[in-house]
Specification:
The protein has a domain of about 25 residues. The protein is mainly β. The N and C termini lie far apart (about 30 Å).
């Protein structure tokens, strides 16, 4: 429906079966970190 209306759509994730949670990662320099990093939260 959005694309049919001329909107641009990006897939940024998905929902799968299994444990609930997410992992966010960043490169060095993001969030004042001097190294690449990741953070995982499982609900």
């Amino acid at each position: 429906a959005l694309q049919g209306s001329g909107e641009t759509v990006f897939e940024i994730g998905r929902i799968d079966q299994g444990n609930r949670g997410c992992t966010v990662s960043g490169k060095a320099g993001s969030w004042n970190s001097d190294k690449a990093w990741s953070a995982t939260h499982n609900a």
